[in-house]
């Protein structure tokens, strides 16, 4: 067996999520995950630092892709369009794997410590987007508000997406709908 | 000395915040707070369940006042106006004590566990506002988005208020400005 077993990362992720849902996150041991995936615990640690990392290892990639999309937005784009571009990049990353995203979300919602970590992740992402807007020359107050508002829109869209009964619902579409709804909300007097 | 010593609650709060800032939250003991306030530890526990409670004991009152304001908003009011009414009620509660709010905020930002608790508090408040909007007949998706957006606007306004160099800045005004900025943001294409 080579250092990287083909497909072991994906199998470990699926096994971990299934076990977290069946037994609870706290009660699941790395050895259980490895056994379910048919690999050794040693192999687990080649892919993930610990069992929490299975749930959060994509945060860096999400941050990177969304910042790249933000920076690639045309200079003429309105601030909220720039934020939307960053969030569409996140949607494109996690959108294709709705079932994994649903399972991950259910695991996180069932555990206070994980919920907190997820909230902090959103905070960091919103702060990073705001900083990137400021580097584009967006005013301080506008940048903070646009990033926080974008994060709010994303959370609502994500929740609708994971809750949707229809498997064909696209995260990009729910995100687009939420941005449209925000425009309606703020236009109403 | 009576069971409730006049002014002891306020003195304990001020002493606690000062010590949390000087020594750190973790390093401060209830006995230190009581000593600084010139009361016994027993008196401390008549006002606060523990040293964390000094920072979070107003959450219930904030939730209550904001929900009452939301429910009192006219049926004809636009959804975001209803959310704004709820948030102005929060601003009226904490606005008069900017120095305490600043200190509290600094203490919370310096401690990961407290930051997490503060984030969770915002989550709960946003969920409660969304539920209250639904009870007013606002659609599910619109209610969630309006509450999350309101929470985002509030956080940005609060941050600007605590960061303001000018002591005369009013939280209600920064909140009103943030709502106006949101309208500008979402109107731009």
Structure at a glance:
2 copies of one chain form a homodimer. Chain A is mostly helical and 189 residues long.
Question: How does this model look, in words?
Answer:
The structure is a homodimer of 189-residue chains. Chain A is 75% helix and 0% strand. Chain A is mainly α. The longest helix of chain A has 24 residues, at 112-135. Chain A is elongated. The relative contact order of chain A is 0.11. Chain A has helices at 8-23, 30-37, 41-47, 53-56, 59-72, 79-94, 98-109, 112-135, 140-163, 171-187. Chain A is built from ten helices and no strands. The interface between A and B is medium-sized, with 33 and 33 residues.
Biggest interface: A-B, 33 and 33 residues
Number of helices of chain A: 10
What oligomeric state is this? homodimer
Mean pLDDT metric of chain A: 93
Q: Ends of chain A: how far apart?
A: 65 Å
Topology, pairings included?
2 copies of one chain form a homodimer.
Chain A: H1 8-23, H2 30-37, H3 41-47, H4 53-56, H5 59-72, H6 79-94, H7 98-109, H8 112-135, H9 140-163, H10 171-187
Helix pairs in contact in A: 1-2, 1-7, 2-3, 5-6, 5-8, 6-9, 6-10, 8-9, 9-10
Key attributes of the depicted protein:
homodimer, elongated, 10 helices, 189 residues, 75% helix, mainly alpha
């Amino acid at each position: 067996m080579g250092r990287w077993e083909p497909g072991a990362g994906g199998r470990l992720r699926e096994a971990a999520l299934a076990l977290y849902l069946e037994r609870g996150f706290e009660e699941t041991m790395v050895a259980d995950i490895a056994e379910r995936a048919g690999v050794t615990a040693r192999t687990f640690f080649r892919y993930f630092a610990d069992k929490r990392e299975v749930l959060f290892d994509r945060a860096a990639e999400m941050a990177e892709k969304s910042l790249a999309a933000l920076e690639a937005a045309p200079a003429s784009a309105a601030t909220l369009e720039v934020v939307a571009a960053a969030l569409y990049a996140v949607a494109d990353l996690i959108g294709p794997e709705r079932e994994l995203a649903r399972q991950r979300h259910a695991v996180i919602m069932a555990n206070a410590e994980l919920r907190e970590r997820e909230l902090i992740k959103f905070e960091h992402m919103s702060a990073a987007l705001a900083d990137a807007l400021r580097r584009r020359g967006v005013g301080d107050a506008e940048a903070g508000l646009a990033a926080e508002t974008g994060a709010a829109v994303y959370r609502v869209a994500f929740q609708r997406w994971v809750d949707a009964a229809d498997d064909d619902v696209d995260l990009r579409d729910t995100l687009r709908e939420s941005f449209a709804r925000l425009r309606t909300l703020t236009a109403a007097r």
